[in-house]
Amino acid sequence: MTDQVFLGSDIAVGHNNSGPKEPAARELPVGVPQITFGGPDHYPDDVLARLTDEATEIIARYPQSRSALLPLLHLTQSVDSYITRAGIEFCAAQLHLTAAQVAAVATFYTMFRRTPTGEYLVGVCTNTLCAVLGGDEILAAAKEHLGIGCGDTTADGRITLEHVECNAACDHAPVVMVNWEFFDAQDPESTIELIEDLRAGLKVQPSRGTGGLCSFRQTERLLAGVPEEPGQ
């Protein structure tokens, strides 16, 4: 299957989804970016069977199946740590949507990743209040310590660093998020210590909540509303 190219409601795909026949792809005008999804274009049989069972359970919670799209995207993201072509096609087939409709949602929300994500997604806020209180310095220190830029992942696959516009926790600024759990009132030194604890496999405790920190893929399953590990 070739890469999928989206323009408005049109989509170029290698095969048809269930539902109305989609219009043929048209050539993109000069300067219009192509929206493509990489990764595998299908799941292994055992993974597909598990996802189908879990998707059926999720969809049953909603009066209209299409309302389950967000949790299904989280479910598929838990497989490869990002949204792949296989994930787009799976959600479309389960919810009787077009791949273009699924892609429109997957590209709207920044929680859905377009590239493989490390075990821990570390997000540093540099919006107004966090910036005033040292957010820029925290981000710079994290980049220098890890030797990577924003959106990149360390060679050991443990840490993906992300620049975040706002964590919606301004009263606890500056805030660092790890897999969307809050670590309040950080500074460069405490952030480096947190990162090193994560890389060492030590247990860390978010500033809020009583549970420990989950891996990125475990977090995605929780957001999908299914057990942390398949088969539980």
Would you write up a description of this structure?
The protein is an alpha+beta fold. It has 2 domains: 5-106, no CATH class; 120-214, Glutaredoxin, CATH 3.40.30.10. 36% of the residues lie in helices and 10% in strands. The protein contains 8 helices and 6 strands.
Gross morphology: globular
Instruction: Give the C-alpha Rg.
Output: 19 Å
Overall structural class, as computed from helix and strand content, comes to alpha+beta
Helix content: 25-40%
Mean of pLDDT: 87
How far apart are the termini? 33 Å
Strand content: 5-15%
Q: How many E strands?
A: 6
- Output the strand order for the largest sheet: 4-3-5-6
Order of helices and strands, N to C? EEHHHHEHHEEEHH
Number of domain units: 2
Major sheet, described briefly? 4 strands, mixed
Low-confidence region ranges = 1-17
Number of helices: 8
Q: Briefly, what is this?
A:
Helices cover 36% and strands 10% of the residues.
List keywords for this structure.
232 residues, alpha+beta, Glutaredoxin, 2 domains, four-stranded mixed sheet, two-stranded antiparallel ribbon, 6 strands, 36% helix, disordered N terminus
List the SSEs and their pairings:
Layout: E1 5-7, E2 10-12, H1 45-59, H2 69-80, H3 85-95, H4 99-106, E3 120-125, H5 128-132, H6 135-146, E4 159-164, E5 176-178, E6 181-183, H7 188-199, H8 216-224
Parallel strand pairs: 3-4
Antiparallel strand pairs: 1-2, 3-5, 5-6
Helix pairs in contact: 1-2, 2-3, 2-8, 3-4, 6-7
